[in-house]
């Protein structure tokens, strides 16, 4: 018997503007969805997380890292939820919380209230009473008023006994606004649980700023989360050997020699990955990917960096900035620095403005000066989300 969380993130969210669907846009250094995901990973009552995605977003979802089941969504929200529920059928899951990925501010207290409410019945959902006056409008003018007595603003996550909500979705014809509608159509009783004003759904461009302010306020004032700022440093060296190119910060750079290493020997990405692990106090690359394990022979270093960023999200942090310095006489890094920043931004899932890549020489001193190899230094700052 266990409780699972389903996070629905397959929509396109065009009303929010931007070049990406809203759940993938940046919010304080991480995608909106990463904040939603981190909340459920940190919740002690949640044993399993299912993330429902659009097929085009599979690479972005993989970059989030961590233990999560990926399920492709359907043509509508309720179809997406049903796909996720069906993926859990036959498992030990007895309760499920269904959440919109575009609600990045769900609190641990709300998750706990919903899980507890399921002891009293088959369904529970958070809501906030409507306190503003309500108008009916026609042609841009007030056409009347509406009594607000007994009206609530619905939120997610919405919680259910698993078998009951699965049967309800299987029986529903489709087109439901949320899972409470599906549950009620099946005759399930849904208890209203106290919602949270901060638990907003990012819908319009201005919602990003509001969510960012709420996250900042939570860092400063919320008793659930204490301020925690981490810094980490990484250093790596690889010697030159035979070859016609080197990999540096995710970019294939033509050169008359290659770099020797157990993986692809991307010295910049290795230093950066170690800096992240260091900030988390989780060792280094060798701790997570032992060089004695043959499966990592020749592996792409982005595997290591994606894993490190996944650990950042799982631990409830965001990466606010990183700085990589490559130390070599040749190849010349300057012309490739922009491409390296862009490559790292794609792998790490953060905006390029938080990434610095630069280079220096050792004035022909030491092993780098003799062009025997390349060294790299990296530093990162993590902030608890």
TrEMBL record:
<comment type="function">
    <text>Bifunctional enzyme that catalyzes the formation of 4-diphosphocytidyl-2-C-methyl-D-erythritol from CTP and 2-C-methyl-D-erythritol 4-phosphate (MEP) (IspD), and catalyzes the conversion of 4-diphosphocytidyl-2-C-methyl-D-erythritol 2-phosphate (CDP-ME2P) to 2-C-methyl-D-erythritol 2,4-cyclodiphosphate (ME-CPP) with a corresponding release of cytidine 5-monophosphate (CMP) (IspF).</text>
</comment>
<dbReference type="GO" id="GO:0019288">
    <property type="term" value="P:isopentenyl diphosphate biosynthetic process, methylerythritol 4-phosphate pathway"/>
</dbReference>
<dbReference type="GO" id="GO:0016114">
    <property type="term" value="P:terpenoid biosynthetic process"/>
</dbReference>
<feature type="binding site">
    <location>
        <position position="238"/>
    </location>
    <ligand>
        <name>a divalent metal cation</name>
    </ligand>
</feature>
<comment type="similarity">
    <text>Belongs to the IspD/TarI cytidylyltransferase family. IspD subfamily.</text>
</comment>
<feature type="binding site">
    <location>
        <position position="370"/>
    </location>
    <ligand>
        <name>4-CDP-2-C-methyl-D-erythritol 2-phosphate</name>
    </ligand>
</feature>
<dbReference type="InterPro" id="IPR003526">
    <property type="entry name" value="MECDP_synthase"/>
</dbReference>
<keyword id="KW-0511">Multifunctional enzyme</keyword>
<comment type="pathway">
    <text>Isoprenoid biosynthesis; isopentenyl diphosphate biosynthesis via DXP pathway; isopentenyl diphosphate from 1-deoxy-D-xylulose 5-phosphate: step 2/6.</text>
</comment>
<comment type="pathway">
    <text>Isoprenoid biosynthesis; isopentenyl diphosphate biosynthesis via DXP pathway; isopentenyl diphosphate from 1-deoxy-D-xylulose 5-phosphate: step 4/6.</text>
</comment>
<dbReference type="InterPro" id="IPR001228">
    <property type="entry name" value="IspD"/>
</dbReference>
<protein>
    <recommendedName>
        <fullName>Bifunctional enzyme IspD/IspF</fullName>
        <ecNumber>2.7.7.60</ecNumber>
        <ecNumber>4.6.1.12</ecNumber>
    </recommendedName>
</protein>
<keyword id="KW-0456">Lyase</keyword>
<dbReference type="InterPro" id="IPR018294">
    <property type="entry name" value="ISPD_synthase_CS"/>
</dbReference>
<dbReference type="InterPro" id="IPR020555">
    <property type="entry name" value="MECDP_synthase_CS"/>
</dbReference>
<dbReference type="InterPro" id="IPR026596">
    <property type="entry name" value="IspD/F"/>
</dbReference>
<keyword id="KW-0548">Nucleotidyltransferase</keyword>
<feature type="binding site">
    <location>
        <begin position="236"/>
        <end position="238"/>
    </location>
    <ligand>
        <name>4-CDP-2-C-methyl-D-erythritol 2-phosphate</name>
    </ligand>
</feature>
<feature type="site" description="Positions MEP for the nucleophilic attack">
    <location>
        <position position="148"/>
    </location>
</feature>
<feature type="site" description="Positions MEP for the nucleophilic attack">
    <location>
        <position position="201"/>
    </location>
</feature>
<feature type="binding site">
    <location>
        <begin position="284"/>
        <end position="286"/>
    </location>
    <ligand>
        <name>4-CDP-2-C-methyl-D-erythritol 2-phosphate</name>
    </ligand>
</feature>
<dbReference type="GO" id="GO:0046872">
    <property type="term" value="F:metal ion binding"/>
</dbReference>
<keyword id="KW-0414">Isoprene biosynthesis</keyword>
<feature type="binding site">
    <location>
        <position position="367"/>
    </location>
    <ligand>
        <name>4-CDP-2-C-methyl-D-erythritol 2-phosphate</name>
    </ligand>
</feature>
<dbReference type="GO" id="GO:0008685">
    <property type="term" value="F:2-C-methyl-D-erythritol 2,4-cyclodiphosphate synthase activity"/>
</dbReference>
<feature type="binding site">
    <location>
        <position position="236"/>
    </location>
    <ligand>
        <name>a divalent metal cation</name>
    </ligand>
</feature>
<dbReference type="GO" id="GO:0050518">
    <property type="term" value="F:2-C-methyl-D-erythritol 4-phosphate cytidylyltransferase activity"/>
</dbReference>
<comment type="similarity">
    <text>In the N-terminal section; belongs to the IspD/TarI cytidylyltransferase family. IspD subfamily.</text>
</comment>
<dbReference type="InterPro" id="IPR029044">
    <property type="entry name" value="Nucleotide-diphossugar_trans"/>
</dbReference>
<dbReference type="Pfam" id="PF01128">
    <property type="entry name" value="IspD"/>
</dbReference>
<feature type="region of interest" description="2-C-methyl-D-erythritol 4-phosphate cytidylyltransferase">
    <location>
        <begin position="1"/>
        <end position="229"/>
    </location>
</feature>
<keyword id="KW-0479">Metal-binding</keyword>
<feature type="binding site">
    <location>
        <begin position="360"/>
        <end position="363"/>
    </location>
    <ligand>
        <name>4-CDP-2-C-methyl-D-erythritol 2-phosphate</name>
    </ligand>
</feature>
<feature type="site" description="Transition state stabilizer">
    <location>
        <position position="15"/>
    </location>
</feature>
<feature type="site" description="Transition state stabilizer">
    <location>
        <position position="22"/>
    </location>
</feature>
<feature type="site" description="Transition state stabilizer">
    <location>
        <position position="262"/>
    </location>
</feature>
<feature type="region of interest" description="2-C-methyl-D-erythritol 2,4-cyclodiphosphate synthase">
    <location>
        <begin position="230"/>
        <end position="385"/>
    </location>
</feature>
<feature type="domain" description="2-C-methyl-D-erythritol 2,4-cyclodiphosphate synthase">
    <location>
        <begin position="229"/>
        <end position="382"/>
    </location>
</feature>
<feature type="binding site">
    <location>
        <position position="270"/>
    </location>
    <ligand>
        <name>a divalent metal cation</name>
    </ligand>
</feature>
<dbReference type="InterPro" id="IPR034683">
    <property type="entry name" value="IspD/TarI"/>
</dbReference>
<dbReference type="InterPro" id="IPR036571">
    <property type="entry name" value="MECDP_synthase_sf"/>
</dbReference>
<feature type="site" description="Transition state stabilizer">
    <location>
        <position position="361"/>
    </location>
</feature>
């Amino acid at each position: 018997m266990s409780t699972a969380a389903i996070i629905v993130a397959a929509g396109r969210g065009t009303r929010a503007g931007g070049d990406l669907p809203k759940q993938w846009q940046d919010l304080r250094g991480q995608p909106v969805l990463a904040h939603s995901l981190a909340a459920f990973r940190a919740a002690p009552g949640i044993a399993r997380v299912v993330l429902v995605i659009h097929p085009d977003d599979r690479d972005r979802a993989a970059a989030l890292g961590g233990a999560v089941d990926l399920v492709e969504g359907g043509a509508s929200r309720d179809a997406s939820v049903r796909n996720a529920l069906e993926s859990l059928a036959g498992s030990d899951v007895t309760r499920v919380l269904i959440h919109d990925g575009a609600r990045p501010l769900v609190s641990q207290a709300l998750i706990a209230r919903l899980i507890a409410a399921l002891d009293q019945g088959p369904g529970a959902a958070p809501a906030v009473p409507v306190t503003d006056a309500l108008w009916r409008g026609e042609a841009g003018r007030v056409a009347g008023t509406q009594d607000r007595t007994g009206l609530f603003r619905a939120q997610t996550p919405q919680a259910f006994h698993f078998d009951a909500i699965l049967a309800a979705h299987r029986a529903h014809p489709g087109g439901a606004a949320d899972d409470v509608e599906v549950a009620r159509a099946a005759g399930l009783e849904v208890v209203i649980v106290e919602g949270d004003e901060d638990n907003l759904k990012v819908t319009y461009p201005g919602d990003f700023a509001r969510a960012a302010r709420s996250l900042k306020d939570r860092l400063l004032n919320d008793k659930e989360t204490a301020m925690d700022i981490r810094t980490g440093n990484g250093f790596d060296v690889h010697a030159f050997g035979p070859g016609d190119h080197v990999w540096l910060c995710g970019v294939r750079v033509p050169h008359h020699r290659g770099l020797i290493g157990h993986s692809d020997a991307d010295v910049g990405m290795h230093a950066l990955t170690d800096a992240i692990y260091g900030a988390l106090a989780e060792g280094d690359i060798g701790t997570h990917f032992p060089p004695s394990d043959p499966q990592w022979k020749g592996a792409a270093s982005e595997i290591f960096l994606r894993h490190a960023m996944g650990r950042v999200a799982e631990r409830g942090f965001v990466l606010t900035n990183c700085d990589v310095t490559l130390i070599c006489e040749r190849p010349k890094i300057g012309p490739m620095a922009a491409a390296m920043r862009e490559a790292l931004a794609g792998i790490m899932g953060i905006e390029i403005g938080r990434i610095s890549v630069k280079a220096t020489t050792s004035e022909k001193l030491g092993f780098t000066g003799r062009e025997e190899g390349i060294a790299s230094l990296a530093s990162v700052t993590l902030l608890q989300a």
